[in-house]
Amino acid sequence: MRTSDGALPFDLLSATERPYFDRLGNGLVVVLPAYQPGPEGWGRGGPPHGGAWIHLGEDGKARAFVGKVEVGQGTRTALSLLIAEELRLPLSSVELTMGDTDVCPWDMGTFGSRSMPDAGEHLRTTGAAARSILLGIASTKLEIAPGDLECSDGHVWAKGTKGSSSVGYGDLVKGLRRVEMVPPSARPTPPSEWTQAGRPTPNLGAREVVTGARQYTSDLHPSGLMHGKVLFAPAYGARLRSVDLSRAEAMPGVVVLHEGDLVALAAPDLATAHAALKAVRADWEPPNQLFERDIVEYLRRNPAEGEDFWDVIHHVAGDIDAALTAAPVSLHETYTTAYIAHVPMETHAVLASWEGERLTVWMGSQTPFRARDAISDALAIPPMNVHIVVPPTGSGFGGKHAADLGIVAARLAKASGRPVRIRYTREEEFTQAYLRPMAVIDIWSGAARDGTLGAWRFHVLNAGSAAARLPYKVANQKIDSQPADSPLSQGSYRALAATANNFARESHLDELAARVGADPVEYRLRHLADDRLAAVLRAVAERSGWVTHPPGSVAHGFGRGRGCGIAVGLEKGGRVATFAEVTVHEDRRLEVVRIVTGFECGAVVHPTNLRSQVEGGTIMALGGALFEAIHFENGRVLNPRLSEYRVPRFRDAPPIEVILLDRRDLPSQGGGEAPLIAVAPAIANAIYDATGRRLRSLPLAPDGTVA
Amino acid sequence: MSPSGSVASSRSAPKLRVNGIDRSIPLDRERSLLYVLREELGLTGTKYGCGEGECGACKVLVDGVAVRSCKTPIGEAIGRSVTTIEGLAQGGALHPVQQAFVDAGAFQCGYCTPGMIIAAVSLLRQSPRPSEVEIRASLDGNLCRCGGYLRVIEAIQRASRPSSESGGRTP
Known about the structure:
The complex is a heterodimer. Chain A is α+β, with helices and mostly antiparallel strands. Chain A folds into three domains: 10-211, Aldehyde Oxidoreductase, domain 4 (2-Layer Sandwich), CATH 3.30.365.10; 217-286 and 348-423, Aldehyde oxidase/xanthine dehydrogenase, molybdopterin binding domain (Aldehyde Oxidoreductase, domain 4, 2-Layer Sandwich), CATH 3.30.365.10; 302-339 and 435-691, Aldehyde oxidase/xanthine dehydrogenase, molybdopterin binding domain (Aldehyde Oxidoreductase, domain 4, 2-Layer Sandwich). Chain A is built from 17 helices and 28 strands. In chain A, a hairpin with a 5-residue loop joins strand 24 (574-584) and strand 25 (590-600). Chain A is globular and about 75 Å long. Chain B has two domains: 15-87, Ubiquitin-like (UB roll) (Roll); 96-167, [2Fe-2S]-binding domain (DNA polymerase, domain 1, Orthogonal Bundle). Chain B has a five-stranded mixed sheet with strand order 2-1-5-3-4, with helices on one face.
């Protein structure tokens, strides 16, 4: 298995065969393996992802390894806090390596808000096991029963004698080369007893960020670096008819690659690379015509088989057809969302470099292990000869799952014999990165005269199933999702389906409330099947000063240009409620006056960062709710520039009040996605309240006004 | 006079004063300041974001005023003093604006942060106690896709307070 230079991916070896100590020096290694069954331990067939491992070294530091990556969402600090907590170490004695495919446990990818429930739980469990093993070693050394010892501040102490008989972790593991597996009996510290986790803490690495010292992939500059460019089709689905590379090939130092539809080149400096790409003459066969105005009908006419991230749902309860027919109040409406772009501030970037047969690719990737497999497949080399490193990354938002740029960079590096870096221009980012899918959602509902919901038929096309299930009690339901054949490149996105499904459901609920004259808060509370979500809704209604009234009731002072809306959501284990107040001015200009968002995701690990995630997610959601949309024609993106595609700016950020409900009695869930999903419906409901106009398509105010 | 005071003493290689040091740069005066900083001088703290002056990730100070280096031809910077994010901290001590960004937790992925800090330093030079409205207007050309705007406003407000006030942080 060993490669020529002795380096090798740990995850391709069994847990006890890995050269931990050759890499990190003597010490104790504690491993939570993937998929190890535990009858009463972590249960249900083991961790769904690849586990974790921690090395305790003679320097007294803990070095921990997980397969998740940090792309700006702040999990590095949160996960490090959990390690420090379990091992009773200061945060400065914890080093966490994330997503490095040579040394980290295999992981499916960083998406779906899984870092806290998976990696967080794995690190807590591993840390707890390491702590009890340290106590065992100390017991022998100090000749004190383990039960009379405790860990604190990197030392093991005899209980109640703090200051006298103690031994540091570094001394305990001196000379050891011991590997232990986490026993199923390992029990992490309950959040109610946390002393480090759960407290406000600055994000790690702040100094590097504010001094410009942090090196992102696009900043890496090894000696001999070549800059790669790819000839991209001018439209999605266009085929290359012919290409003339002679002028580019004649430029000094330029290496050109041409295999089928792939044309790529590398040059010793970026300016030459740009010039060489411009010198390529290509003739393309355009794709079939599709106009943006026809997109809804196109998607309806072109159903497709499911892809991995769609997670198709078919849920039936009761007799939906009979219940819809019999309901005295019924409603059918269609809701849509637009194709939007991730727009990470750091565009896609990769750096590929060969050492003999072994390839290292540095890339801002949310799926480094899958990238390793994709690259090894494409190049027909063994996965053990591919090493993916994920440097600090200028955000992802679900947009950095693809490995294709890594494959091209690796080929160019092979052809030129030098390291090759490729970084998308902003225009390439808009045209080549996949988009958030457009969703088309139909809802048919039936209610009693007092508004009590009895029938709910929900069909989502081209967005997926997340948050499609009802958080409300309804006897007769039919909920299904249907992928479609998209005319544009589409893929994963932060809170993709949940944003669309929640917008449709929470808008529709408001329409029903208006129809029966019910207050939207009371109407939701009447139907909510989830006490935790009800608690969040109550907290937001109270803090926002919610005035009880049916939507758009002028008698209560609303409906005259000023309005309030509220929406809830349950997604990825998180519960969210968002209140929005808007003013629609006489010139129809929409102003979001303020937002109050309540969020509950179990025990809060890192409140400083969670607050940032909720605020930031709310602002990102405002973009998709109000004005973001990719425009297209014939497979061509028409607005591939920041001057043409508007993302939220300072002027768009309203005051946001964040309420975090910390439930120390519940497991920690992710906070990166759920806080986005109630923003759009809250604003749509507020617009209705202010104007009596019901908007059912996102974005709600593309040019800043309400139509 | 500057310590290295030999601006334009060499005819063949033009010099650019960056962070107090004269650096030799290529002859092409149309090349962007961003390109020269990142590709020629290895100062990668200044970021590429869009290349059309829309995002502010590339902002640097030229004679103390924030400019978009992606839209600034190098010819316009020669003979003037350029300060990048790498040049703000003095002798290991962070600039007060940098410290305020740390204290306020005013970054997520951090990619836009150098440009934000440069824009904030420029604003505070012109207006030492800016209102929130001024801060928003002045930084509207800086994008943060993580949506960290409210933390950035808080950081700039912290930096604009006299040190006696900002020293008394609640734990």
